[in-house]
Design goal:
- With about 130 residues, the protein is mostly beta strands.
- The protein has one domain.
- Helix content is about 0%, strand content about 55%.
- A five-stranded antiparallel sheet has the order 1-4-5-6-9, with no helix packed on it. The protein has a five-stranded antiparallel sheet with strand order 2-3-10-7-8, with no helix packed on it.
- The two termini are about 10 Å apart.
- It comes from Micromonospora fulviviridis.
- This is Secreted protein.
- Keywords: Signal.
């Protein structure tokens, strides 16, 4: 498996560990191959994803909480390499998984909005075929 790294988050799962510069003590386990963080209302995250030591994509998101239970995660993801992998942001809101679009091929930028309710809020970025 290719070495996949993310700057800005902590890596989990079966891929190589990520370069971590996220908030201490706020990481949560992700599905295999994911990079994620336990998010709070108002959090903003910028993530660079690397494949084989070369930047393969990036993502940005903001977590909004319009009321005490509602969650709205908005942002964008962009593919930077013609490597057969796409960039995807996904989140666990309460007990339900929400998935953004897969950004690919190279140069594709997709906006997303993930809506749900409940806590915790876990947000992830990944490279996926």
């Amino acid at each position: 498996m290719a070495s996949i790294l993310a700057a800005g988050l902590v890596g989990f799962g079966s891929v190589s560990p990520a370069l971590a510069d996220g908030k201490p003590g706020t990481t949560a386990p992700a599905p295999a191959g994911g990079f994620g963080t336990l998010a709070l209302c108002g959090d903003t995250e910028d993530v660079n994803l690397y494949n084989g030591g070369i930047k393969a994509g990036e993502a940005h998101w903001t977590v909004g909480c319009p009321n005490s239970t509602a969650v709205k995660i908005t942002g964008w993801s962009e593919d930077h390499r013609a490597d057969g992998l796409c960039v995807q942001v996904y989140a666990l809101i309460g007990s339900t998984w929400h998935y953004g679009p897969r950004s690919c091929p190279n140069g594709d930028v997709d906006n997303f909005e993930l809506n749900g309710s409940g806590r915790p809020i876990e947000v992830y970025a990944r490279l996926i075929a």
